[in-house]
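ok trying again, last paste got cut off:
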Amino acid sequence: MRIKPRTSVLNNGHPLSKGLVAAWSFLQLTDLRNNLTLTKTGNVTQQTGRYGKEYNFPGGASTWLTMADDPRLDISGKITLVILLKAGTFPSYWQAIIAKRVVADAPCNYELGAKNTDGTLVWFNGSTVSESSFIPTPGIWYRVVVTCDNTTAKFYVNGVFHSSAAATLGAENAGAFWIGSFDHSTDEPFVGSIAEVRIYDRVLTASEVKLDYQDMWGIYRRISQNQIGKAVTTPLDAEFSADVTSPDRDQVVTFTDSSTGAYAPTTWSWTFGDGGTSILQNPTHTYVTAGTYTVALTVTNENPAGAEESIETKTNYISVQDFGAFFDKNGNIIMQWREDGNVEFIGDVTIGGILYGGS
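nice, full thing came through this time. structure:
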């Protein structure tokens, strides 16, 4: 069997590991990259959600996740923020969703927020608001990615570019890092749920943003298995079976694909050992010559982290039986025998005064 392995999105060498500063899944408050630990305050609660664990932000004073200033979270030049969120009620004033800033408006290194009145997502650097044209629908999960190259902020939703606006990063500062709000009397806390936050010190390309969204479910599967940063334990593995492995000549044999893997097969290539082939998932095949035959199945998939291929070969898997037969005067088979010595009477037959029936 030949397998091309699939690796975790956070493994070094994976395209989405480059420039990754922090990655919080909310099975835990310590990030999976640099052990940066958040502190929960107020009425923030962890709960089982649609995508593993999530944190629910009900609103109210001092309701957020935070950690003290850490130089690794001070970003200059370029940044990407990744968040999986479900918005609740629209704010009557500004909602800070992710921020690295001091209590006052400035200095603010970076902030993703929701605009008052309608919830439009915005980028803020302490002095300038850069608006997207995306308004989350309350109660719906979105994968939001925001990149800023110190000239333009680009907003992506569910792996697809949505809108952009002129934007820069603010000054690096000694302020805390916040998720869900920050300690400012005129800002409202975020209301809704958040399941993951990631920060990069570079701009993800459009293709990388698409890859991130395509692999999102794999990420949460690995989180549930406590396998972030490890190789996935379910690579593509070819397997198959036949409904009969000792058929008669000219008997139809049905083959069934039972391959497994985190990403299911998308192509199938069969060889039946007698020169016959198929590209169907579950083909049928008829052997016309007695003998033993080796059957092989090659499957591939479209794993976003790199296509996988797996081959399953079953040596001498099919043993085709030859047979002979006696016929009555009307041409009907009354008795047949096979190479394995099995004799079968069709109906009741009397030979030498002895009644035979069945096998």
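cool. Residues 206-214 form the longest helix (9 residues). The two ends are 40 Å apart (CA to CA).
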